[in-house]
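Tokens for chain A. Residues wanted.
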């Protein structure tokens, strides 16, 4: 099995919706589909979105990477797709993330500042800047949860809020103690 890695830059065609917290909704939908498909194809990598631009890195089995990239290239949610890296890979370099997400964050602002760049414009990145971006995605510790929808789609297992589960536990203990008391009382009457 031969492995490969691929990175590209592109321009979003959708108008970004303002978000206070979390991930832009169009990007969140892209991430949900990507995580589902990439998990099945054993692809790993990361997506960076900022300033209306995408930077994506993918690695995995050659056939799967190329098949996925063909689908991505046909997607009308972005345009002006420029392949930045497309080469064989000796061994996997990413942990288990099917598609890690990093927003335009402090780290990237620092990266832009270090390189004297005014805007996030991955299409014009040099080879060294691409490698630094990949490293940044690899090391990112940004919260990867997209929204409550992802919890619901997480194998259909809804998460029980902690407050509810602890009060439920307390209620069950009280009910059990009450039942035990009733049994002891009933036993003493016999
Ligand atoms: P379908 O889901 O049948 O979609 C067909 C086409 O309809 C798409 O190509 C797209 O143009 C359009 N479309 C689909 N959903 C929407 C929507 N919600 N809003 C608007 N148009 C829509 N897929 C992966 O599997 N792995 C990735 O790593 C990955 N990365 C991506 C990165 C970017 C920046 C973008 C824009 C897309 C990415 N995708 C990725 C999504 C990919 O392009 C396909 O849409 C997806 O894989 C589903 O493929 P499909 O053939 O089943 O298409």
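Reply:
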């Amino acid at each position: 099995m031969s492995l490969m890695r691929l990175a590209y830059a592109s321009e979003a065609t959708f108008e970004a919706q303002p978000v206070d917290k979390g991930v832009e909704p169009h990007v969140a939908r892209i991430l949900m589909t990507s995580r589902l498909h990439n998990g099945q194809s054993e692809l790993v990598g990361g997506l960076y979105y900022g300033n209306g631009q995408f930077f994506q890195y993918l690695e995995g089995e050659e056939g799967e990477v190329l098949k996925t990239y063909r689908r991505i290239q046909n997607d009308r949610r972005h345009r002006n797709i420029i392949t930045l890296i497309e080469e064989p890979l000796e061994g996997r370099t990413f942990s288990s993330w099917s598609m890690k997400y990093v927003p335009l964050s402090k780290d990237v602002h620092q990266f832009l500042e270090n390189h004297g760049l005014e805007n996030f414009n991955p299409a014009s990145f040099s080879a060294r800047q691409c490698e630094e971006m990949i490293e940044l995605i690899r090391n990112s510790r940004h919260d990867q949860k997209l929204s409550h929808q992802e919890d619901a789609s997480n194998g259909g297992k809804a998460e029980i809020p902690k407050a509810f589960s602890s009060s439920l536990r307390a209620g069950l203990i009280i009910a059990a103690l009450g039942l035990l008391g009733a049994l002891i009382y009933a036993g003493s009457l016999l």
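The pocket of flavin-adenine dinucleotide is lined by residues 10, 29-30, 33-34, 37-38, 47, 54, 56, 68, 71-72, 74-78, 99 (CB under 6 Å). Residues 148-165 have pLDDT under 50 and may be disordered.
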